Amino acid sequence: YRRLFLECGKSSGKTALSSALLLYLLAADNEHGAEVVCAARATTQARQCFDSCRDMLRACPKLVASLGLRVLTHSIVQMSSASTLLPVSAQGKSLAGKILHGAAVDELWAHRDRSVYEEMSLGCDKRNNSLLSSIGHAGENLMSVGYELHATDTMMLKGELKDEKTLALIF
Predict the structure, then answer these.
(1) d(Cα 20, Cα 15) in Å, to the nearest integer?
(2) From the DSSP assignment, how many helices (H) and strands (E) are in the chain?
(3) Are 133 and 163 within 8 A, CB to CB?
(4) CA separation (Å) from 120 to 19, 66, 94, 95?
(5) Strand, coil or helix: what is 26?
(6) Is-contact 165 152, C-beta < 8 A?
(7) pLDDT tens track for 104-146
């Protein structure tokens, strides 16, 4: 799969799951020069996922050492593969032009427009083995990209639409 859409209730561990996926893509997927990002509309939301990654690693120093990671305030780096994990948001000018191995976009229902999702999608499409993860709960904004993906993925789950690149999970 190249896309993951996971929708489930609040406080069900979505951010922790995103963090684990991103850390795998950063350090265990054998991708040299992997650029991996936690993306969101707001910097604080992007930092939530990134900080979860950082906290997971700080709690496991043996894992950090075995994977050769450097856990910094604003990035996580694996020097041996020249791979990095960063938080990015629509508030900064750091979205365009990326060649991503992995991206997690949280809470798509809260995004005002498609810009963050589209830039992450374009960045992931530039690599053959990338993953774009969209994780959130059902939101109230029917005009959001989150609702659009929800509607499309619901059709996939019902068998009305086929997309072999996307794993859709709604519960």
Answers:
(1) 9
(2) 5, 8
(3) no
(4) 16, 29, 11, 7
(5) helix
(6) no
(7) 998 888 887 888 999 999 999 999 899 999 988 877 777 888 8
- Biggest alpha carbon–alpha carbon distance for the chain: 47
Beta strand extents in 72-138 (DSSP E only) = 76-78, 83-89, 102-106, 131-136
Instruction: Record the tokens describing residue 151, joined without a space.
Output: 């509607």
The whole-angstrom separation of Cα 48 and Cα 95 is: 17
Stated pTM of the model: 0.90
- CA dist 102 → 4, 23, 29, 86, 151 (Å): 11, 10, 10, 11, 23
* Angle between helix 43-58 and helix 14-27 axes, rounded to 10 deg: 70
Tell the residue number behind the tokens 């996939």, with chain if given: 156
